[in-house]
Specification:
Blueprint: E1 17-20, H1 26-37, E2 41-46, H2 50-61, E3 67-71, H3 77-91, E4 94-99, H4 113-129, E5 133-144, H5 145-148, H6 160-174, H7 177-182, E6 186-192, H8 199-207, H9 211-219, H10 225-235, E7 245-248
Parallel strand pairs: 1-2, 1-4, 2-3, 4-5, 5-6, 6-7
Length: 257
């Protein structure tokens, strides 16, 4: 998949509405761009990058779709509720929810911040969105192999708290698959290897110089941001895999579960 390719057929999401958390930059921004290119009206969510989010919205409106920009702290219940209230007022429904925002390696945060963001906030966002998700809707949770396989394959010590919290988030969301299925809502976990050019990769490299190069050599190839985002966007439209899991990139180095 090249930088310029569009992973979804033109018009395949016309009339649909998609919200991507953490979509002012990086994987989230490219994902929301691909969804808009396929015709979806989009909600760009950010925590503190308002100018960047607004710039992206202006670009996407040029495609002829609606783009709503909503700032929200996903660890704050009132903030999350206010975001979906705005989605309700603007669009009335939601067809695609991509749970992309994550973190935990930032400095100066509370000791349990990774768990708050990567588990508790993910569940809160899904549950708050549920009234807007109808039959045929899709929920996509974005994670990493280092988190998805953390129970069977150790990761770098610097990343372990994030990996454990993201796996806890994945497990908590998977518990809700029967509830989602009852509503006709599909659920897919998209797990990728380390992604070149992400904030997480930059922080890991700072904490453990040479880590990214070592992983690249081991895997043979690492996806870049736009390539991985294309897989995330495709997961919003492709049939839901039997195990609700879309694995992106090399998994030979990870022990299965």
């Amino acid at each position: 998949m090249t930088e310029t390719s569009t992973p979804l057929p033109a018009g395949s999401l016309s009339g649909k509405t998609a919200l991507v958390t953490g979509s002012s930059r990086g994987i989230g921004a490219d994902t929301v761009r691909y969804l808009a290119e396929a015709g979806a009206n989009v909600v760009i969510n950010y925590r503190n990058k308002a100018p960047r989010a607004e710039k992206l919205a202006t670009e996407l409106r040029g495609l002829g779709v609606e783009a709503l920009v909503v700032g929200a702290d996903l660890t704050d219940a009132e903030s999350v509720q206010a975001m979906f209230d705005e989605v309700q007022r603007t669009f009335g429904h939601l067809d695609i929810l991509v749970l992309n925002a994550s973190g935990g390696m930032e400095s100066g945060m509370a000791e349990d911040y990774a768990l708050q963001l990567n588990r508790d906030a993910q569940v809160r966002v899904l549950e708050t969105a549920l009234p807007l998700l109808g039959d045929g809707a899709r929920v996509v949770f974005v994670t990493s192999h280092q988190a998805h396989f953390i129970r069977t394959t150790p990761t770098m010590p610097e990343y372990e708290p994030v990996a454990l919290s993201k796996r806890a988030g994945e497990d908590a969301l998977r518990e809700r698959i029967p509830t989602l299925a009852d509503r006709g809502v599909g659920f897919v976990v998209v797990s990728g290897d380390m992604i070149e050019g992400t904030i997480t990769a930059t922080l890991l490299e700072r904490a453990n110089p040479g880590a990214i190069a070592a992983r690249r050599e081991d895997a043979g190839k690492l996806y870049n941001v736009s390539e991985f985002a294309a897989e995330v966007a495709a997961a919003a439209l492709d049939p839901v895999p039997a195990d609700n899991t879309r694995l992106v990139g090399d998994t030979d180095s990870f022990d299965g579960e």
